[in-house]
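name: query_chain
kind: protein
chains: 1
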Amino acid sequence: MNPIFANRRERLMEMKVRRKGVEQPRRLVAPPVFDKCSRCGAVAAKAELARSLYVCPNCGYHHPIGAYLRLAMVLDAKSFRELNEGMVAPNALQFPGYEEKLESARDATGLSEAVVTARGRIGGVPVAAAVLDSHFFMGSMGVAVGEKITRCVEYAQRHRLPLIIFSASGGARMQEGILSLMQMAKTAAAVRRFQEAGGLYISFFTHPTTGGVTASFASLGDITLAEPGALIGFAGPRVIQQTIGQTLPEGFQRAEYLVEHGFVDQIVPRTAMRETLIRLLRLHGKGELPRE
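structure:
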């Protein structure tokens, strides 16, 4: 079996939701047979999209994918071990309707929060990884997300592991107010301590990564990669254009534009994602694989 998908089914089968405080296995619903590309409108069979790693065969658009699927694509088969599973934060500001929206998001995605953190191996190299999932509150960063990211960074530092974070976010979570914004400083400080201790941090931007996530840990990588066409920025291009009253350059805030201007080191198509990470890890590990 292709190692990219070797543990995908077991990861999906292990996903859980919480109803009335009781954990129950998530009910998997058969997906539609066909899917329509949100960029070019072309219709493709789900099986064909899966074989192309959910990249549109017509226009090359990289469809957003879930955190568990992303990890299944990059980690060695059967190496996945989730960290801080089920960590959540209370509705500290008593924002009306917030608990109900969280429960709805958990029921729809099988996630407890908008990030999954894990330990695993990539090409035999042990790593700590975090993946933000845009299907859960658009990957917004609240207290729980900031805490899980911070603990993942600290875990990598404690165990002397390379750190890889895949970002996808709409920014800070409105319902958590200033508590959400505080996560920017907390995650950035954790990354700084990790790097000062000699740790390698690879930041991988996916579409879209905006707001407080871009303005904190996502932009601090020693090596910064991005998927083709990913929107990367703080405020969105429409907000910037309306604010300054000027027309922005074509492709502004897209990965290709940012590579040209030195903000991103390299654009990496999804089909090359795992192999690129393997090469980088081996390069920074002096070309040697760790002994068991």
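note: Residues 1-20 have pLDDT under 50 and may be disordered.
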